[in-house]
């Protein structure tokens, strides 16, 4: 295959830009920390999160789309692992709040028909746009022009959503029940049940990928 | 051994992979397909799919944020 390759084009050295950007990030971090330490922490986490997303080519869209489209489930499994880690972390935070008798932190929101409608709309949108929220932002940073368009309409859509949110609240959200699994099943079953369920899904998608590629290879 | 080029520059994520899949079906064993992409997500799923199918894959970054994926149809 070596003969097929064309010689590389001369690339601009990006190293100085990287150093300049790093210095800029640190300077902005210091300025933010003077305002409030929490801002600086959020700044650092935001940068780190974006870096990991870009380098890992982690994509929530692909995790739901690729199994259907190509049979590849590596990103699906990555999302399941991420959910497991998040489950353990959030359970620790929430359980300690519960033991102290504080109000339980986290986004515990009413679930109902509006959840399903929103999920379907978001799913269709993210596959067409080629990225979910974090994926779109990441590719805006990479300089992928089409995603800049996505971002503009993402903002317009969010504003529109905020405008209609009152109607959704009145019609569906206020009438829907708020489900917090530990209240329903108890902490033990909710926590370990969720981990076991995620583990089962993990095994299922791995089997699915194996099955899909092996039946395909036989027909080729 | 023939080689074919597939221009997927400017195509967002699932499209390069779908085009590659269609194109690979037309190729004979031993042919090489060169997929030109500039979407970082396709950089992951095109080689992954091809390797899963058992093809030989090599990736070359020809320019900043632009790649050529070499896929050799082995079977």
Q: Return residue spans of chain A where pLDDT drops below 50 for at least 5 consecutive residues.
A: none
By secondary-structure content and strand pairing, the structural class of chain A works out as mainly alpha
Q: What is the fourth-level CATH superfamily of chain B?
A: TusA-like domain
How would you classify the helix and strand content of chain B by structural class?
alpha+beta
Task: Report on this structure.
The complex is a heterodimer of chains A (220) and B (75). Chain A is 77% helix and 0% strand. With 220 residues, chain A is mostly helical. Chain A folds into 2 domains: 13-56; 58-219, no CATH class. In chain A, α4 (74-99) packs antiparallel against α9 and α6 (133-142) packs antiparallel against α7. The longest helix of chain A has 33 residues, at 187-219. Chain A is globular, with a radius of gyration of 22 Å. Chain A starts with 14 loop residues before the first helix and ends with a helix. Chain B is an alpha+beta fold. Chain B has a single domain, classed as TusA-like domain (Translation Initiation Factor IF3, 2-Layer Sandwich), CATH 3.30.110.40. Chain B contains 2 helices and 4 strands. Chain B starts with a strand and ends with a strand. In chain B, 39% of the residues are buried. The mean pLDDT of chain B is 83. Classes of the chains: A mainly alpha (220), B alpha+beta (75). The interface between A and B is large, with 37 and 34 residues.
Give a quick summary of the entry.
The complex is a heterodimer of chains A (220) and B (75). Chain A has helices spanning 15-35, 37-56, 60-69, 74-99, 113-129, 133-142, 145-171, 181-185, 187-219. With 220 residues, chain A is an all-alpha fold.
Topology summary:
The complex is a heterodimer of chains A (220) and B (75).
Chain A: H1 15-35, H2 37-56, H3 60-69, H4 74-99, H5 113-129, H6 133-142, H7 145-171, H8 181-185, H9 187-219
Helix pairs in contact in A: 1-2, 3-4, 4-9, 6-7
Chain B: E1 3-7, H1 14-26, E2 32-37, H2 42-52, E3 56-63, E4 66-72
Parallel strand pairs in B: 1-2
Antiparallel strand pairs in B: 2-4, 3-4
Helix pairs in contact in B: 1-2
């Amino acid at each position: 295959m070596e003969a097929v390759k064309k010689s590389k084009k001369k690339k601009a050295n990006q190293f100085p830009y990287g150093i300049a950007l790093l210095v800029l990030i640190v300077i902005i971090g210091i300025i933010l920390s003077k305002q409030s330490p929490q801002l600086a922490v959020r700044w650092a986490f935001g940068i780190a999160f974006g870096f990991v997303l870009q380098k890992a080519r982690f994509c929530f869209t692909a995790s739901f789309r690729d199994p259907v489209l190509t049979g590849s489930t590596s990103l699906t499994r990555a999302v399941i692992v991420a959910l497991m880690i998040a489950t353990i972390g959030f359970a620790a935070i929430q359980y300690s709040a519960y033991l102290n008798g504080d109000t339980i932190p986290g986004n515990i929101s009413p679930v109902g028909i509006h959840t399903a409608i929103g999920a379907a709309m978001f799913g269709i949108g993210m596959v067409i746009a080629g990225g979910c929220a974090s994926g779109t932002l990441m590719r805006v940073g990479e300089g992928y022009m089409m995603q800049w368009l996505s971002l503009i309409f993402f903002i317009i859509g969010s504003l529109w959503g905020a405008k209609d949110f009152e109607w959704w609240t009145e019609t569906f959200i206020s009438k829907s029940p708020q489900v917090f699994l530990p209240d329903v099943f108890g902490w033990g079953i909710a926590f370990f049940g969720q981990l076991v369920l995620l583990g089962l899904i993990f095994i299922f998608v791995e089997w699915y990928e194996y099955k899909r590629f092996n039946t395909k290879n036989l027909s080729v | 051994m023939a080689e074919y080029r597939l221009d997927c520059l400017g195509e967002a994520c699932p499209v390069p992979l779908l085009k590659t899949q269609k194109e690979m079906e037309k190729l004979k064993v031993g042919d090489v397909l060169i997929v030109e992409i500039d979407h970082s997500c396709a950089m992951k799923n095109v080689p992954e799919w091809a390797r899963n199918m058992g093809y030989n894959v090599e990736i070359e970054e020809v320019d900043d944020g632009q790649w050529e994926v070499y896929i050799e149809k082995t079977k």
